[in-house]
Input
Amino acid sequence: MQSQDVAPRPAPGSGSAAASSSSDPLVDVEQAEAALVEHYPRLVRLAYLVLPPGLGRNRRVLTAHALTQRALPRGRTPVPVIPAQSTGREGDPGYAFVRLRVLRTALEAGLPLTFRAWPRRSQLPPLLPQVRGLRLFPRSGGADELALDQRLSALSGPARAAYVLRGLEKLPDGDVREVLAAAGVDDVDDALDEADEVPAQYALLGSPEFDPCSLQARPTDLMRRRQHMKAALAAAAAVAVCGALLGLPGDGWAPDGAAAPPYAQNPAAQAALDPGRLTRVPATAWQAAARTDFSVWPARGDLTGDEALLRRALAIWARPGETVQVSATPGTPSGGPAGPPQLLYAGNVDNARVVILYDGLRIARYAEPKDSTKGAALDFARVDGASGAEANAVVLGRADGNVRYLTAPWVKKAAERDLLKPGSGAMDLTVAEGVTSPLASAAQQTGACTSWNVLQLTDGSGTRLSTDLGELVPARLTTGRPGSTRDASGAAALRAWAPFACSLSAVRSQGVRSVNAWEYATQPLPDASGSASWVCTRAETWRGGGTRVQAQFRTPGGPYGAVAAKAENVPACGPRDPHVLAGVLWKSEAGSWYLLAAGSRGTASITTTGGVGGSAQGNLLAVRTRQGAQAGLTGKLESGRSIDALR
Output
């Protein structure tokens, strides 16, 4: 079985993909939108790389997002299919269309303005998105990325587009010629020859240096902003005076009831800033506690007595300055503590001084360089209701692609394990006063996914796995049917997770609490090709909303699973609704195409709609079809309830 045999999931539609009399497929708004949303980061990266560097990094970022978001058609549009060399995009006319629109407008943005014609929309600063008071730009890469960026900036727009299509889209030169010609490039041969002058360092195109979806923020011109602010304050003061003169007594504008004036000191707020009032839990408190969570963690680290450091951490938590880098996982408030928080750690970690605090709802991590108080960072993560495995570890710091953890006092042993290699065993980590030795961080790896290192912790209840997803608290990994999940430990659980570990990258920095993998069906393949497995992965978040579900399809012997369908904020594959239905187009070794679909246990029948006709009793369906066919799926449970396919 070849790795390219699995096509994207059947798109819901009302008819066949070949409904047009033209040889080119028709793309409607819904199909283009689905492709744009699924491949949005790749399309924005493509636009960012093709846009002229003279725009500046901030405007390139905003323009790349604007061009991508304007790539939808107004109606059904014919488009030639130029396949992308990836399982998730092969032969998808929706993706080919939006990619062509993005490329064409990015090339137009580099054209010089003339007085003979009105400027095109892509040549003007974008109306949306807009960010006031901040400059946004991708994270800096290494020397190789900087050198490649300088070489690309010396190329013409069509040559940059040719280089990016070769490297990022992995298109052969024949397909590159077709795409450039369709995008309006006059001399395609010159563009290809010019692109040949830059070394083929295509792997660098996937680095954070060229990722306009992972950004850093810095303030704009502060002096000019201050001058504008003074003028605005003067105008506001004049309006306030006029309003006070016009306000009526009695029911007019009055003080906020019994509230104190804004400048009054609040005792609880003042206590929250006093390092002497920090809550410090005894080292053995967890042994007698009724629950195991962050509230029974003792204060550890070699700087727990440094009042100056603790005072700075509390003050910056309450009112971070403009130079402090503040981040928070989705759904996490970043305001100051309501009262004295609990101290979990204060000490030296690599080249930084780190303070970890807990206020019952959030973990706050303050870090500053050892030799200065400049460049401080403040990070927040929501952890309300965490207990047991969810309160086993907190990230202390990341450096050089590695991560260090502070573990719970009840953790007896820590180890590092590659989730992609279930039979390779675990490598023990040293733990000193709860601090682990550094281990490779899966959240910081770039390029191809060749490994996925996770943290393995052993406590009195057993062994558990957690993975770094770029947040303060690692996400717990589980397996099993929703409602009866268990920690991913043991040989069977490791084998179940191995083919799907790389899919965890899709939920980085989303405030993920836990991710469950559940094999909900096994399907015999047509043409005696063996049996395929259907696995549903569901990422739960700390805030409740934002759950992400992926149905993945794995052929016999395939090293990785292919995402057949995905959805957000749906109950499917969860404890409230442990049912799921998904389908894929699959090519057999004999060269025949099939629509395969599988539902979870309790599915009584599956029926296709749209361009493919077929039905089957039970939870499995296999219908012979053609490449590029489009169809919808509906299922009926044994209880009589209908379910739609995940999408």
Remarks:
- The longest helix spans residues 222-246.
